[in-house]
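A quick aside before the break. I want you to see a complete sequence-to-structure record at least once, exactly as it would be stored in a machine-readable document. Don't worry about memorizing anything.
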Amino acid sequence: MEGGSPDQESVVSGTKKSSISSGGRIRDEFLHRFIDSQTLTSNLEDWFQALSENSFDFDVPFELIDLQKFDYALEGVSFQQLIRMPSGGGYTSSPPATMDPTAFLAIEDFLHASIKGLWEAFWDPHEPIPLNVASLYNSNLKFYQAEKAIANGKLPGLCATSVMLNNPRHPHGKWHDILELALLRPGIGTLENESEITYPSLSILGEALFYGVRVLLSRSLRRSKGLNSVFVILADCQYGGVVKLEGDLTKMEFDVNNVYECASEWIKNHSQVSVSPFDRIWNKLGNANWGDIGALQVLFATFQSMVQYAGPPKNSIEDLAADHSSRLQTRRNERRMGEIGINGNNNGLFKLQQRSVSPEIVEVPEESGNIEPRRSVTLEVGSVLVVEDSNWQKSYKINEVLSDGEMSYYYVNSVDDPGKALFLYVGSHPSQVEPAWEDMKLWYQVQRQTKVFSVMNQNGLSSKYLPQLTMSGKIIHPGACRKQNSNSGGNCDNPWCGTPILVTSPVGKTVEEMVRSGEFGADEAIKCCHDCLSALSTAATAGIRHGDIRPENIICVNSGGGQNQYFVLVGWGHAILEERDRPALNLHFSSTYALQEGKLCSASDAESLVYLLYFSSGGDLPELDSVEGALEWRDTFWSKRLIQQNLGEISAVLKAFADYVDSLCGTPYPMDYEIWLRRLKRHLHENGKEINTSS
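That is the input. The structure line, written in tokens, reads:
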């Protein structure tokens, strides 16, 4: 127990439990004497003066890139409309003793809406929120609902508002239950400056630090591990910002006769104080500015405070932010639909008629005989598709409709060369309004993958284990094309006109199909590992990583059977070409680093390959429904070496490869592909399974 053995000489008070250590009693007494923010502020004057001479060199609590990612994650989150709002401007000029009561009601509603929206979006919308919001009364440092406190005449004594854990045993709340505090103080709006960053006065900052230290002290008495930081929100009726106090309290000297000197010295020498810029959190009408930077900073502080107590959310920021591109595409589609209606393409429910005399938009009923809405492109077995690029036209016959588990693609033959089998992928029409998720997947499957193949060709990459770009172009539809008389971006109203096409070779059966039919044995697993590593090694020479390794994205090419069988790594639509690119996320096959950071490390593709080999060789496929669960599964199976044990039953070299990947996961160290390609090739050679590495 912290503080050593009980101090027998001091156990004379009946209010103390004999099991509490002397160190704990000293901290408890220290906290009871630490009650005056003004005295602490006075002790910080020299520190504040030194900071002012250095232009207040505070760090910011949040990096801009993290706020942007959080902003993307919140795009699909609805925060409830606030009923009680601050009165628009009289508050900032009022003294604290005569604060408008609506300000306290408004900040309570703002914080409650924040925790409700965040809890339902990131944790569990079906579980009750384990948090509440209460206001702090300064005479006894206890917590009350602002509405009750105001009704009981306690308005002048309200000094802060807190987000707290529910505590049925102590309905008035305990300080160690506080997640974050908000201080309503006049003049915060004067800190907002577009041309330069301004900081709160010593009196306001000193008060924020006072409450921050009290919270950290209270937590330390409860032996709360890892809770060594606290956020304090500073706000008035319009503007707000965040102060973060962080530090190790074990470095504080607990002299109960000099509590303020001890606390101030700890702040100066052993803590880190960071202050955000101040911006609007309410607009001039009193409504919350949920989508602006001021409210976003407060929400992010609240989110991080909730993570401290509730643990990692079920839906991470990266999970929700990953849908940003889909939501963006949806908005583009909606805007395009509006533009189509305005331009008179007859796709809307109503046509918009403009007159030179009046700017009114007049609703006109649809006339009969209008052109039908654009239909999706569907191809049937036996049909012939004509594709053109900048140089020539080619025809392809559809032999079979396939699926990668998410999207359809086609097994085709060139009409000019019937003996050569190919894969054909159909993209999304440039003006087709599809569901966002499907539209983006089609884009990755065709347009993005075409770009990746072009980059590979530009870098001279060539390998039999990589797919080859055969043709990239657009469909030529039967009948006359009327795009010359159309205003729809160079395409006529035929549903096939302008649809992008990608044709690749070679063709083969996916690993997913082989596993389902019992054709993926030990030899196939080792060959698959070798061939995929060879493909990854070739791509890595140009700085390209795959980012979406799964059984549907590896095909087995059977060019004569037996020794001529080899594997090709396909599905390069999510490949990482530059730093800003993000991989596809798959709870079963994505690497640990990809799930945690939304990016790839040097060993991420190899780690995904290990998972593929494990699951394809008899490993149990767990039911995973969250990133948190997927990370927990990975941590358990790697720590218990269950993956290595399973692969060791197939081959010692696969077990050794899994150990190697485990040692690299999440590190910046590069993969040594060559050594593992040699070891895998030697193993197959010793077992009579030759590898033909010629291109």
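Two observations worth writing down. The chain has 20 helices and 19 strands. The longest strand covers residues 393-403. We'll return to this after the break.
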